[in-house]
Amino acid sequence: MLRHNLVIGLACVGLAACQPSMTRQERAVEEQVIRDQLTAWTRAFSNRQQDSLAMFYHQSPDLTVAWPDGHRSSGWEEEEQAQRVFFSKVGQVNFVVQDVRVQVFSPTLAQATFRHASDVIMGDLNPERQYFTGSGTMIWMKPDPRGNWVIHTEQVSETPAAAPPPAAPARRR
Prior knowledge:
Elements: H1 2-16, H2 24-46, H3 50-54, E1 64-66, E2 72-74, H4 76-89, E3 90-106, E4 109-122, E5 128-141, E6 150-156, E7 159-160
Parallel strand pairs: 1-6
Antiparallel strand pairs: 1-2, 3-4, 4-5, 5-6, 5-7
């Protein structure tokens, strides 16, 4: 995971070196815009709003998403299908991002990293509740400098919640 993030970060820095520079104020404004986009994406994901989620993704064959179970989708059509399958199996999702860090490399390229906690109820007949924590990385881009930031690359990992500690043995009297 760390190695993957390092590779992504280095690629972003390399690409950013070819882009026009930004003032500190421009960078701060774009960082806030991406934070707002990530918050809106989180809300749409938690509410299982597939139509709304579509507007957050780069609608091209270049889109890459790595799901926590190891599945990778390439291109918007594959990702849209992966989301459709996931949401058909899920009764409820509560996905919360924490410790968001945004780096704007250029006017058209940025990265957001975060920790997350998720509470997912799988199935309808015999629902199973699953709790996870993990981390995520999203590479955001602006295909049109006057347009919106969209997700170009996404990776979310999950670590199952730790089992509760065993009960303390009863004291003898």
